[in-house]
Design a protein that fits this description.
The chain is α+β, with helices and mostly antiparallel strands. It has 3 helices and 8 strands, in the order H-H-E-E-H-E-E-E-E-E-E. The protein has one domain: Roll (Nuclear Transport Factor 2, Chain: A). The longest helix has 23 residues.
């Protein structure tokens, strides 16, 4: 079997397209627009979250998690992304980065830490879709407590 290697220009274009998915998702998150957020997921996506349920299978189930979670977010916020890396091939890509909420309401509990995210993408019918996502916060192995920090 002969494997085609993506030309550098294609890799650059795919990397930019994946970045646009991330940016569009974060913009939808800031507006608490669940419909737009969910448009970026493949129907059979598998997701791991920092809070229970630890594994969610399928975009419909993941939508319910977001709908239950968003009321706990600040009324108004932006998202800051740090250390974003995107590795994109012809039809599969992966990204990893840190992100945090920046709220207009000081000291909101949901804006007190950085989250770690790894996201797997697959090009489906010409569009990049999230097929796997893993969000987490670090923990202290001595206390078994999550480590919330604004200093990543």
């Amino acid at each position: 079997m002969v494997q085609k290697i993506a030309a550098p220009k294609t890799k650059v274009n795919n990397k930019a397209a994946v970045r646009k998915v991330i940016d569009d998702f974060m913009a939808a998150l800031c507006h608490k627009d669940v419909k737009s957020m969910m448009s970026h997921y493949a129907p059979d996506a598998v997701l791991y979250d920092a809070k229970p349920p630890f594994q969610v299978r399928g975009a419909i189930a993941w939508r319910h998690v977001w709908e239950a979670c968003l009321p706990f977010f600040p009324p108004s916020f932006q998202v800051e992304i740090k250390d974003l890396a995107i590795h994109a091939g012809h039809d599969v890509a992966i990204s990893h980065y840190l992100f945090r909420l920046i709220e207009t309401e000081k000291d909101h509990p949901a804006a007190q830490t950085w989250m770690r995210t790894t996201t797997g993408f697959k090009k489906i019918q010409g569009k990049w879709k999230i097929v796997h996502e893993h969000g987490s916060v670090p923990f202290n192995p001595h206390t078994l407590q999550a480590q919330f920090t604004l200093e990543p």
